[in-house]
TrEMBL record:
This is Rab-GAP TBC domain-containing protein. InterPro entries: Rab-GAP-TBC_dom, Rab-GAP_TBC_sf, Rab_GAP_TBC_domain. One of its GO terms (molecular function) is GTPase activator activity. Residues 45-235 form the Rab-GAP TBC domain.
Length: 297
């Protein structure tokens, strides 16, 4: 039996209204918000005019910032080693070049982006600066629209979600994630796993960019920020689940591809095709929902 995935929906709780979001942000009490309803509301989409405040709420950036004395952020970004500064400068134009705020060389967008990246390199010298950080920081800048809060939100992501280990020398977290993904693919899709093994395909080469940049690189901005909404609540799990769903939807096509065509499809086309063909609600379906669907095939 062939399943029409795009018609399948799962029952979710009622999303927060604009007024309810405003009350949540006013009270700023994360622990007293229903996580089930919060997740379902993020999946359904949040009010765009409140997204920056919602991200600040989810990351608890305000709470972190008040733990430091005034002027700490300024001191962190004012003094930076020349080699790190030069490395950041080389990458600035690669970050969201389609957004006007980042297009002008040495303009306000690039200046804020550099300030935050320099500040983090000083805040966490063990990690310093790595290419790919700019997409996360740039996205925070676009939505939060406050330089210092964007910095503290980035700090929370790097430390609360331990995302810093993705960028640490040797990328230990990224390697661990790819091992987890390989094991899970073998369990869920043994035929795909066998095909990947036969084609000597390395998952790290195909999917690392989606973890490093949290789907913010080479993904339509309107979709990337929706994924980031849920990421700020669920962390890496949402990234894994998205990729597993995509592999399930495109398994037949994937099994027909070999060698370089297979590699290029997984790296460049899989995610783009899925975003074009399926709603985010479908792609965000739960593991239980996926198992029901797969059992009906």
């Amino acid at each position: 039996m062939e399943i029409q995935y795009h018609k399948i929906s799962e029952k979710r709780s009622k999303p927060f209204t604009q007024r309810e979001w405003e009350m949540i942000l006013k009270h700023n009490d994360y622990n007293n918000v229903s996580k089930k309803r919060l997740k379902d509301s993020l999946i359904c989409g949040v009010p765009s005019d409140l997204r920056g405040e919602i991200w600040t709420f989810l990351t608890r950036a305000n709470q972190l910032s008040v733990q430091f004395s005034n002027g700490v952020y300024k001191k962190l970004h004012e003094r930076i080693a020349d080699d790190i500064s030069n490395q950041i400068d080389r990458d600035l134009h690669r970050t969201f070049p389609e957004h006007r705020i980042f297009q002008e060389r040495d303009g306000i967008g690039q200046m804020i982006l550099k300030n935050i990246l320099c500040a983090y390199a000083n805040y966490d010298p063990e990690v310093g600066y790595c290419q790919g950080m700019g997409f996360i920081v740039g996205c925070l800048i676009l939505q939060i629209r406050n330089e210092e809060l964007s910095f503290w939100a980035f700090v929370q992501i790097m430390h609360d979600f331990n995302w810093r280990l993705i960028f640490k020398n040797g990328t230990p977290r990224l390697i661990t994630m790819m091992k987890i993904m390989k094991k899970e693919v073998k369990k869920r899709f043994p035929d795909l796993h066998q095909h990947f093994e036969e084609q000597d395909l390395q998952l790290l080469a195909c999917f690392s960019q989606y973890f490093i940049t949290v789907f913010l690189y080479d993904t339509p901005t309107n979709i990337g920020i929706r994924i980031f909404d849920v990421f700020l609540l669920e962390g890496e799990r949402v990234l894994f689940d998205l990729l597993y769903r995509m592999l399930a939807f495109k398994k037949v096509e994937i099994l027909e591809l070999k060698s370089q065509d297979l590699y290029m499809y997984l790296r460049k086309k899989l995610v783009k095709e899925c975003f074009e063909e399926f709603s985010l609600g479908t792609l965000f379906s739960t593991r239980r929902q996926e198992e029901r669907e797969m059992n009906e095939i």
